[in-house]
Amino acid sequence: MPTQARERSRIVRTIQAYLDANPAAADTLDGIAGAWLGGCFARGRVEEALEHLVRRGAMAIRILPDESALFSRAPRGAP
What CATH number did the domain enclosing 58 receive? Predict the structure, then answer.
C-alpha cells in the first residue's frame, strides 16, 4: 500500500476511534486536525480522510452560516 494511502488509513482509524470515544463530537477541519489528531498530520491529508469518511457515509458534513464545514458522526441509518 502506498505511503499516502497508509497515512489516510491511519487518519481515518484515528478519527473513528475519537468518535467511538466521543460519539457526539463535531468540529471543523482545523479543529479535527488540531484537537482530535494533535496536529500530527498535514491539514490536506486530514481533509482527504474526512472527505473519504463523508463519501463512505461514516461522517456527516454541515455547512454553517459562516460557510465553514462542521464534521460529525453520520446519524445511524444514514445512507
Answer: 1.10.10.10
Mean pLDDT of 19-44: 96
Structural domain harbouring 15: 3-73
| Rg of the chain taking only CA atoms, in angstroms | 12
Whether residue 51 lies inside any domain: the answer is: yes
Could you give the CA distance from residue 2 to residue 24 in angstroms, rounded to a whole number? 33
pLDDT in the model for residue 79: 52
pLDDT value, residue 62: 96
**What residues have CB less than 8 Å from 69, skipping those under 6 apart?**
28, 29, 61, 62, 63
